[in-house]
Amino acid sequence: MYKENQELATTFTIEGNQFLYNGKPMRILSGAMHYFRIVPQYWRDRLLKLKACGFNTVETYLAWNVHEPKEGQFNFTGIADVERFVRLAAELGLHVILRPSPYICAEWEFGGLPAWLLRDPSMHLRCYHKPYLDKIDAYYDELMPRLKPLLCTNGGPVIAMQIENEYGSYGNDKQYLEYLKQAMIERGIDVLMFTSDGYDDSNLQGGTLLPEVLATVNFGSQPEEAFAKLQEYQPDKPNMCMEYWNGWFDHWGDEHHVRGHDDVADVLDRMLKSGASINFYMFHGGTNFGFYNGANYLGKYEPTVTSYDYHAALNESGDRTDKYYAIREVISRYAELPDLVLPPAAPKKNYGRVRLTQQARLFDSLNRLSEPVWRRCPETMEQLGQDYGFILYTTRISGPRTSNKITIQEVRDRALLFLDGVHQGVAERNTHDQTIEIHENDIVVEIPSDGAELSVLVENMGRINYGFGMKDPKGITEGVRFERMFLHDWKIHTLPLDDLSGLVFQDLQPEEKFTPTFYKGVFHVDETGDTFLKLEGWTKGVAYVNGFNLGRYWEIGPQKTLYVPGPLLREGDNELIVFELHGTQDPVVMLQDFAELG
């Protein structure tokens, strides 16, 4: 067991092509799991399974937006208690690698950057830009003193820390990288520092601080090619794959990604045979609870699903897979496996059908969810101090008017349009021409003489977490036009949906299709356990259990169920709320004992 005691301080250094722990050669056998994607009650279980698989190290990112959700307001409790996670790893005899770089990618909302950075439209991200660096300094002033006692140089388990993440795929500002390095050093971080990047020339030239800082590479295959390229730039240091992509993540509307365990084991064996160190990304993926999923944009906007199963060695609910045992067998050829009794799999429960018997329509509940503000033009979420969720823009169009189209210029990311409360259509970010022709039952509607109320409900489906499109404000970013005319004078409701306690529910009313509605039901539990929420017959929305936001669902898949960890439940009655955007024919869900991800 590690203790925070300078007398027990250890060293982790590099000599030639090997790592040394207290002067003795050590190969890093690490697996990634993110504390913020796992309910804290399951941290020990996942870490024990990591160790039993033959790993000696756990690696985790630190998500800035989790720890500073509002500027100057810090959170290191509950699922954000990274210190507890690290100490727990230490109790189990594991080393720890931390990656606290301001940006983490990780298919996480905005790559871990806090949304409030975008309140300043002139903000430049991930470069030597003083307003950006000032925000990092304020965060590091709070973060680094928490991490310092956990360093191996202070008797803790942390052997290495990352400066920035895959920076070579974004920029080449070496002054910025050097600033981050010094910011850590000045706050007492004295363990081995590293960068991690793809293994082509561009990445290794742009993202590293060679030769002073260890460079590591990320890949999923062809380890010989990757390490050969790394050796061209760094011939005198150990080879380290900081991210061995043994699975992959899913976007809404795509197929569920699967990678066979034989292929994963073969690449692992080749790496270990070469003497390299390795970090599995991911060993256990977990879940993008709430609104924390990220998105990609490489010509098309692609939001990531709620599950971060990643087809990893441990699945989303923490169960061992065929890949787990294949990895363990390979590691056993190169390292001694610990003699551990594995904890049993968490029980999976089938609680059956749950009928949601009450409802609260969004448009009837607006003033219970937020105070409206009035603006001449639509403003983004960030301009109004909102981070995640939905935002509603309302204005009046004078009449009479002949029929025409409404254009949103431009929507981030998906908008539902209503005229006098009647649904007219959906405008999506990927549609080049984001226009809606006002119609009802395929009949063109004119604006009546007394005018009509236009409402635009916009969903933030996740900020871009990778690449050149990261500056990604949400809501309506330009304006709304009726034909060529921009519409002005908007009432705006910010709807982060982080507190639903003010909603007033009533018995179910006759269904109004395409009316965004909160549905509530109660289900009874005699014995708690993991379960999976299936929303067959529902279209798109968000689900909450006992006030906890499980994440998004969408009928287009590939994800068909939402993971409900047992610790979120309680014996007796439990509350389920589903916010459905488009309506359902029958407000019934299933709580079943297996996941459906494909």
Automatic annotation (TrEMBL):
* Record-given protein name: Beta-galactosidase
- EC numbers listed for it are 3.2.1.23
Residues of the Beta-galactosidase galactose-binding domain: 516-574
* Gene Ontology BP annotations: carbohydrate metabolic process
Q: Which domain of life is it from?
A: Bacteria
Which positions fall inside the Beta-galactosidase 1-like first all-beta domain?
378-495
Alphabetically sorted, this entry's keywords are: Glycosidase, Hydrolase
Recorded catalytic reaction(s): these are: Hydrolysis of terminal non-reducing beta-D-galactose residues in beta-D-galactosides
GO MF term (any one) = beta-galactosidase activity
Of which family is this protein a member?
Belongs to the glycosyl hydrolase 35 family.
Q: Which residues form the Glycoside hydrolase 35 catalytic domain?
A: 18-333
Q: Name one Pfam family in it.
A: BetaGal_gal-bd
In terms of PROSITE patterns, this protein maps to: GLYCOSYL_HYDROL_F35
Q: Does the keyword Electron transport apply?
A: no
Q: Which InterPro entries does the entry mention?
A: B-gal_1-like, BetaGal1-like_ABD1, BetaGal_gal-bd, Galactose-bd-like_sf, GH, Gly_Hdrlase_35_cat, Glyco_hydro_35_CS, Glycoside_Hdrlase_35
Instruction: Please give the organism.
Output: Cohnella endophytica
Q: Which catalytic residues are annotated? A: E166, E243
Q: Does the keyword Transmembrane apply?
A: no
